[in-house]
Amino acid sequence: MRRWPALLVAIALGAAAAGCADTDDQHHASAKPRQPPPANPTKLALPGMPPVLDRRDVYSADRPNQVVAADRGDRSLIYVPNSQSNTVDEINPRTFKIVRQFPVGRLPQHVVPSWDLKTLWVANDTGNSLTAIDPRTGAPGRTIPVADPYNMYFTPNGRYAIVVAERLSRLDFRDPHTMRLHKSVHVPCSGVDHMDFTASGRFALASCEFSGQMVAIDVAAQRVVGELTLRRTAMPQDVKLSPDGRTFYVADMASNGVWKISARSFRKIGFIHTGLGAHGLYVSRDSRYLYVSNRQEGSISLVSFRTGKPVRKWHIPGGGSPDMGGVSANGRVLWLSGRYNAAVYAISTVTGHLLARIPVGNGPHGLSVFPQPGRYSLGHTGVFR
């Protein structure tokens, strides 16, 4: 692992999380206990980032049905990018029926809510473009040329979109509206694809699927500042910060579980076995559980944030390939794409029972549920805070 630059170490030793108790992204080489937070810890947040509502929970703005006023008129839909069909299907979550299908560019991978929640972007990977969707109506709009948009995130202050250009091994910082390129950041790994941000918004942790590595990015400086190898055979996928901001959880499809990485020291601190092909990570509306989709065994594991252990597992009847998705606004349904089964699964978070299996196009991937609670989006299929 690359050592943290001296400047970052100095900052880290005196830093506190952006409004989260004991949750800083203090990236330092030692295991010394953190210093008491300053009187106003939000000074250390990424400039312009909205403050966390509850210092104990970065997802405190994501409670059931707390959709911001500006989004309450948006049409409630499930957006499904079909990678092998080059289409997007839109599903009515009440009737479980497809209400619209439209063509997009080649290999659409994810449907990504913008930071300001005003646009949904379809990331057309080999089509080298982004297709805009109006969330008020669900209708597609303009298409913008963008190189290799496998995935997309937004800096926590909304200043930049970060296009994850997987095959080009770089992160492209772009204007979040026009998508004009600001800066390309090369990543020293193979297969960069997913990320999440520290509680302060000052750092991001990204997974590199094909080299078994994680890289840390200084968001303001727009540069890679750390590397971590999970194991040679690892295939890290989705990344999610714990509610208290102390730990990053990283799904590993090859190791069949979830790594725990300290958001303070950037070191591995544990591993949780969940099931074959652990892939997508989603936080329950009450911030108690992490839903882990085990793609190769057709199941979803529930990991307790309090104990750090799996507490139950839901199996899809007849099997399946649960992949990416999101939680309904009321928190009662987990929506997941069935990557290899041309289907979408609606799963009750109350009972774990399959509510519906909906046929869609081929290769459904980064499904997005919209609208959802939260003040702004960090990207992917909808990481809201």
Work out the helicity level.
Answer: under 10%
Strand arrangement across the biggest beta sheet: 3-2-1-28
At the fourth level of CATH, the homologous superfamily is: YVTN repeat-like/Quinoprotein amine dehydrogenase
Mean of the pLDDT scores?
90
CATH topology: Methylamine Dehydrogenase, Chain H
Number of helices: 1
Low-confidence spans = 1-19, 21-42
Give the number of domains: 1
Per CATH, the architecture is 7 Propeller
What is the 3D shape? Answer: globular
Order of helices and strands: HEEEEEEEEEEEEEEEEEEEEEEEEEEEE
* Gap from first CA to last CA: 30 Å
Number of strands: 28
Query: What structural class results from the helix and strand content?
Result: mainly beta
Task: Please report the first level of CATH classification, the CATH class.
Answer: Mainly Beta
Please compute the radius of gyration using only Cα atoms.
19 Å
Could you please describe the fold and organization of this structure?
A four-stranded antiparallel β-sheet has the order 3-2-1-28, with no helix packed on it. It starts with 5 loop residues before the first helix and ends in a 15-residue tail after the last strand. The chain has one helix at 6-13; strands at 77-82, 87-92, 97-103, 108-113, 120-124, 129-134, 139-145, 151-154, 161-165, 170-174, 181-186, 192-197, 203-208, 213-218, 223-229, 236-241, 247-252, 257-262, 268-273, 278-283, 289-294, 299-304, 310-315, 322-327, 333-338, 343-348, 354-359, 368-370. The chain has a single domain (6-24, 58-370), classed as Methylamine Dehydrogenase, Chain H. The protein is mainly β. Residues 1-19 and 21-42 have low confidence and may be disordered.
